Amino acid sequence: SAVISQKPSRDICQRGTSLTIQCQVDSQVTMMFWYRQQPGQSLTLIATANQGSEATYESGFVIDKFPISRPNLTFSTLTVSNMSPEDSSIYLCSATQGTHQPQHFGDGTRLSIL
Amino acid sequence: KQEVTQIPAALSVPEGENLVLNCSFTDSAIYNLQWFRQDPGKGLTSLLLIQSSQREQTSGRLNASLDKSSGRSTLYIAASQPGDSATYLCAVTLSGSARQLTFGSGTQLTVLP
Q1: Handedness of CA B44, A45, A86, A69 (dihedral sign)
Q2: Mean pLDDT to the nearest integer, B12-23
Q3: Which residues pair with B90 in a beta bridge?
Q4: CA nearest to B52 within chain A
């Protein structure tokens, strides 16, 4: 199964700043996703990271706030822009190697905004 | 819109008990269903994946069943251990989707020694 590494694992940021989270997979994967887990809540999909093209965002999430890159089949980044305290969450990257394969997750990035 | 519900929200059992966690979903047109565990401060660990054409999957002390027509899945844990304490999440992938997961709110399990 794919092993997913996320960096940073946690950060404390100032209001109004931006942070880029990196997601590295140890093998080529067909699909990569970004999820948000707010305190005490389950996971909500932010977007599907498409290799070589713009990400597909879910309702309530926009590219200006959460720009995503996916330059190849093993790497993706999520930027949280112009952060406010409401963005304090865990951000998780996931990937799957194929249609009939499970999704695997990184350990997440715990983000706190002051 | 697909909604996934997990009951109970929390469960506490003594060590050694067998237990069942429940998951229900509103749209039966799913591609597959996956069970995860999440330990405090950690990401998600995949436990079992059931394709829509399958009825159950087993891994060690875990057995997951799927009844797609009724929109239900159960995760059975045999001979529970304190190390099983975690939050268990079920998630479904809709047919025709880009394989993104819709999650339930989870069951927080505590196994008492």
Answers
A1: positive
A2: 97
A3: B35
A4: A100
